[in-house]
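Lecture 7 notes: from sequence to structure.

We start with a single chain of 307 residues. Read the sequence below before looking at the structure.
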Amino acid sequence: MKAGQNARIAYYNGKYLPEGDIRLPFRDKGFLYGDAVFDMTRTFGGDIFRIEEHVGRLYDSLRAMQIEPGIAPDEMVAISHEVLARNAHLLGPDTDYWVAQRVSRGLADVGDEGWEQPGATLIVECRPLPLAERAPFYGDGVDVVISPIRRTSPDALTPRAKTHNYLNLIMAGMALPPDSGYPILLDHNGNLAEGLGANIFLVRDGVCLTPREQFVLPGVSRQVVFDLCAQLGIEHREQDLDFHDAANANEIFLTSTSMCIAPVKSFNARTVGHAPGPVPGPVTRRLMDAYVELVGFDWVAQYRAYL
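Now the structure, written as tokens:
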């Protein structure tokens, strides 16, 4: 067990415990079936970002999956702050945390034995962001590749709920050759959907375009970009987007909680833009600068420090 894992404190079913002391029963439905939902935010300079929005999305997912967490949203927010506070001293000067809330449906019954534990299983935990791993995204940009695996159709399981069942997204990445690029999935109609934990935006003639919410997880960072576009006077729309749209985009970028905004260098091994220039492009750069100003922390410089 790594030292950090043993030192960090997590919340588990009413108790704050060292991560290494938590024993999750193997009959938990989250482990057995992926029958759980989660959400996660990040810190900027040790300060948690938009926790209320993330917890709000968590409870949207819980309602959609019909899981009763047993605590109110404001309690979940308070627990998240407490977990962060108990681990703040472990945070290095150039690092930040993911802070995650995880809720499973609880333990599965065994034959006629009934429930071993009534109610949901609840974990709130934090872990360091993978800054070094993702630092190259802020140097040369991201290479994205279309995966042959399609995103789960909304008529099977809504992608708008953030569930623990990540196999669709994991297999989309595994279907690509190693180091070929960041996987982007198409929806069942052949339009762009989303990446492995990230939303995608195209910029065409100064307009920001992104897939419709029906087919993707509505990211909090995605909404931040909408807000920044409105603030900066940049037109933005949700619409169906296909390979043709991506091939003709002037700029492409990804958004996620940890990455915020990551500029894309190539799409399916083709350089983005009609006249390739520096990455990020001008619209992406404006949005990145505005995002830095919004949070009051230079997360771009934080990533680039690891190059």
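The chain has two domains: 3-129, 135-304. Keep this in mind for problem set 3.
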